[in-house]
Write a structure and sequence with these properties.
Blueprint (H helix, E strand, L loop, with lengths): L17 E3 L8 H16 L7 E4 L1 H10 L3 H12 L5 H18 L3 H13 L6 E7 L15 E5 L2 H13 L4 H10 L7 E7 L5 E6 L10 E8 L3 H4 L6 E6 L5 E5 L5 E5 L5 E5 L2 H4 L6 H18 L3 E8 L2 E9 L20 E4 L1 E4 L2 E8 L14 E4 L7 H4 L4 E4 L7 H8 L4 E3 L4 H4 L5 E5 L4 E6 L25 E6 L5 H5 L6 E5 L1 H8 L4 H6 L3 H19 L4 E4 L5 H5 L20 H7 L1 H17 L3 E5 L5 H13 L10 E5 L4 H10 L4 E5 H9 L17 H16 L4 E4 L2 H4 L1 H10 L3 E4 L4 H25 L8
Parallel strand pairs: 16-17, 17-18, 18-19, 22-23, 22-29, 23-24, 24-25, 25-26, 26-27, 27-28, 28-29
Antiparallel strand pairs: 1-2, 2-5, 3-4, 3-5, 6-7, 6-12, 7-8, 8-9, 10-11, 12-13, 14-21, 15-19, 16-20, 20-21
Helix pairs in contact: 3-4, 4-6, 15-17, 17-20, 19-20, 19-21, 22-24, 23-24, 26-27
Length: about 775
């Protein structure tokens, strides 16, 4: 095995259109691109690499020149580099450049050379066709996942089309944004690697130094079942193994959640296969697998004499290396063990430390790259997963948090290159972190911490200039919005919403009190200050939405949150488990004078805006609610005509007591899915240790929700659910629609997405009914 980078074997072949990987070395990178040159170098080092060939950069240049599009491409590319901050213009320029590339196409000579090289690999061989741009996979820039790779290609015409597709991928917004960020201004060129496709049982990535700490004594391996795309794209949370390079000992293992794998399907295309429960959380690699991958990774590092980022795949018993490149973001090796320890206080979520550094900002929860325009500069991007299409958004973010992915996925690599702190694999991040909340992302330790109460933040919607389809679907299920402060009311009200399903009192109260505990203010005789401030805040929201309903949820601070207010230690008990302690309805009964201030403020608002209604949270027992309703009825609010009295269904006991509550005068029920889930499953939703147990779609939780909705329907009162799950999980939305829920309330940024999901569910339900009636013309309607 060679211990140094090997020179090219045949310099005379540098102008060839197509070259065997076995004849390429690192010095040929200007013709073979970074990926092709590195694969040839691995072969020269005696390491296992699938056979294949490279369509060179000369082939690309000659085809564009022969097609008469080279000059136009260069001009458009120059203009595009200056338009990276104008997404619409950049998208248009990239589309035009891709059209130019396709019109240039492969020359006849090149088509013949590619077909001949393909046939030489064997009859009807399945290949992977992968971009290898000039400058890609080098020491200064990885282009990780930027350009296109196409797997499971069979047949000559499909191969030709795939090569052209790789060329066209030079000109996408994500690539141009990356090139601009990295200072690449010359017109790009593309080589294409064609290799025998490995039918992978297991696949993943190996970093020969820890990318999160810079520790060169450790090797990090990430693995998943099936093809490696799920690891490098961040589609799943892979297994992560940290190995001591000197001893080969595995010093840390984290088993990821891998709900599916990608394999070659019966039709020859990539197929997504859902994994059974035994495999979702199963360990991917055996000790033997880990040892062989470690040996090959160290051998590659020794050959290059630099830390390497390596992609590998296991087919049967054989381990293959399918890519290698220098780690572009590795800092100097640590000279001593750092004294710094991760913080313990205020941790909201834990994940994997993917890109070091710390940044604070307001959360912006987004589901797809198409929503990227909603992120404001300096906000924290929180997403289910990120791929390179997110690059223009990542570039503007203060930090990035994802629910899936590992430390070696493409998005993590790009975040490190752009010096954007990043935490991946933070499960439930899009539901536990709310848009507008202030957080600190610690990419060094893999933590997301609470920064404190958020300042008011505007929510960008279609009415505020967002780009959405004008054809908004109509739904029978009402779509409400969750709000916490008046500053976003006008913008939210201009969107396609049916009202406010959850108006949280806590932030308005904190703002009204100037951060003081309400009893500290009452001790100074300043009750009127609180009432006036709350009246103004609630009134502004009510005015924006009138005549649509606004459901005001009375204050539901927990005792530990009240203690954090100025003077709170003088009035609040110390509880070991405040989540199920002194809060909600019980607190109003025990402190009726404080509850009376809220009722007074609500009364004054309803004098002008009768669309406002009251919701009582965290109702445990019949007697609590009975006393609380007496307090309401004895106030001027209770004597106002048309007041609706809602309760939050958060405590499982409501499943039993709801008919009784309705008989006591409750005329609306809103399911708080977060609290209901934690109490049904016995898991603290604030616990990072037990985060994987928290599941709103657990059968027990769905059964409780179904029984609550069924009771509401039986007694003809409205039912709602407050939570983000319907906007992120279409199956959950369909469950709610089939149950017959009357409304769903979500954050402003999820309104359009939720309405689309609900509309689709309603259409499926209607179609099912039509089909049932057609099949059973004399039968009853399906339930």
């Amino acid at each position: 095995m060679s211990t140094s980078v090997t020179p090219a074997r045949t310099a005379a072949d540098t102008g060839a259109l197509v070259r065997s990987l076995a004849d390429i070395r690192l010095v040929d990178a200007d013709q073979a691109g970074g990926k092709g040159a590195n694969l040839g170098e691995l072969i020269a080092a005696g390491l296992p690499v699938p056979p294949g060939f490279v369509v060179t950069c000369d082939a690309y240049r000659s085809s564009m020149r022969a097609g008469g599009v080279d000059a136009e491409l260069a001009a458009l590319h120059h203009e595009a580099l200056g338009s990276v901050d104008d997404p619409a213009r950049l998208d248009e320029l990239c589309r035009r450049m891709r059209d130019e590339v396709r019109s240039g196409n492969l020359t006849a000579d090149l088509r013949d050379a590619v077909v001949a090289a393909y046939r030489a690999l064997g009859p009807h061989v399945v290949v992977a066709v992968r971009s290898s741009a000039a400058g890609e996979d080098g020491r200064d820039a990885s282009f990780a996942g930027m350009n296109r790779s196409i797997t499971n290609i069979t047949g000559e015409q499909d191969l030709i089309d795939a090569v052209a597709g790789c060329w066209a991928s030079l000109f996408t917004p994500r690539v141009l944004t990356y090139r601009a960020a990295r200072g690449f201004t010359e017109a790009p060129e593309m080589a294409v690697v064609v290799q025998r496709m490995i039918s992978a049982d297991r696949a993943g990535v190996a970093f020969t130094a820890d990318p999160s700490t810079g520790n060169r004594d450790h090797l990090v391996i990430e693995a998943a079942f099936g093809q490696g795309e799920v690891v490098v794209s961040g589609k799943v949370q892979p297994d992560t193994y940290v190995v001591d390079k000197a001893t080969g000992r595995v010093v840390d293992t984290r088993i990821g959640v891998k709900p599916f794998k990608i394999v070659r399907g019966d039709d020859g295309r990539d197929a997504v296969v859902e994994l059974d429960a035994d495999h979702v959380n199963a360990q991917v690699l055996s000790e033997t697998d880990l040892r062989r991958i470690t040996e090959l990774a160290i051998a590659a590092e020794r050959h290059y004499r630099d830390p390497q980022d390596i992609e590998w795949a296991i087919e049967g018993e054989a381990v293959w290396l399918v890519q290698a490149r220098p780690i572009t973001t590795l800092g100097p090796a640590p000279t001593a063990t750092p004294d710094e320890h991760p913080a313990r206080d205020g941790v909201l979520l834990n994940g994997l430390p993917a890109a070091p550094g710390t940044a604070s900002g307001r959360v912006r929860v987004l589901q797809t790259p198409a929503d990227g325009s909603l992120l404001r500069d300096g906000e924290v991007l929180v997403a289910p997963m990120t791929n390179p299409d997110w690059l223009p958004t990542i570039r503007r973010a203060a930090a990035v948090v994802t629910e899936s992915g590992g430390m070696t996925c493409h998005a993590a690599i790009v975040a490190r290159e752009l010096s954007v702190p990043c935490v991946v694999g933070a499960r439930s991040a899009t539901t536990l972190l709310q848009t507008g909340a202030m957080v600190t992302v610690d990419g060094t330790h893999g933590q997301i911490r609470d920064t404190g109460p958020a300042a008011p933040v505007a929510v960008v919607t279609a009415a505020a200039g967002g780009s959405v389809s004008s054809a908004t679907p109509v739904t029978a299920t009402r779509i409400y919005v969750n709000l916490a402060m008046p500053d976003t009311a006008e913008t939210a009200a201009a969107a396609d919403v049916d009202g406010v399903g959850l108006l949280r009192a806590e932030m308005m109260l904190t703002d009204a009190l100037g951060g003081r505990h309400p009893r500290a203010l009452m001790a100074r005789g300043e009750q009127s200050t609180l009432i006036t401030a709350m009246t103004d805040a609630i009134g502004r929201i009510a005015a924006a939405f009138a005549p649509r309903p606004v459901i005001y949820r009375a204050t539901d601070f927990r005792s530990n949150e009240f203690r954090n207010l100025s003077g709170g230690e003088d009035f609040e008990p110390v509880e070991h488990n405040p989540m199920i302690g002194y809060r909600g309805c019980y607190r109003y009964v025990k402190e009726p004078d404080l509850f009376a201030l809220e009722l007074t403020a609500l009364t004054e608002v309803r004098d002008r805006y009768p669309n406002v209604h009251l919701m009582v949270p965290f109702v445990r027992t019949r007697w609590e609610l009975d006393e609380c309703l007496h307090l309401v009825d004895d106030s001027r609010l209770g004597r106002q005509h048309g007041l609706h009295r809602w309760i939050m269904a958060e405590v499982p006991s409501v499943v039993h007591w709801l008919p009784t509550y309705i008989g006591m005068g409750i005329d609306g029920v809103s399911i708080g899915s977060n609290d209901l889930t934690q109490l049904m499953l016995g898991v603290d939703r604030d616990s990072e240790t037990c985060a994987e147990v928290f599941d709103e779609t657990d059968a027990a939780v769905l059964d409780a929700i179904g029984r609550i909705v069924s009771t509401a329907r039986r007694f003809h009162i409205p039912s709602s659910l407050c939570g983000q799950a319907p906007s992120t999980n279409p199956a959950f939305a369909e469950h709610l629609v089939r149950m017959g829920i009357t409304s769903i309330s979500v954050n402003p940024d999820a309104v359009a997405r939720t309405r689309r999901a609900v509309a689709a569910a309603e259409q499926r339900l209607l179609l099912d009914a039509v089909r049932y009636q057609a099949d059973n013309p004399d039968g009853d309607q399906p339930k």
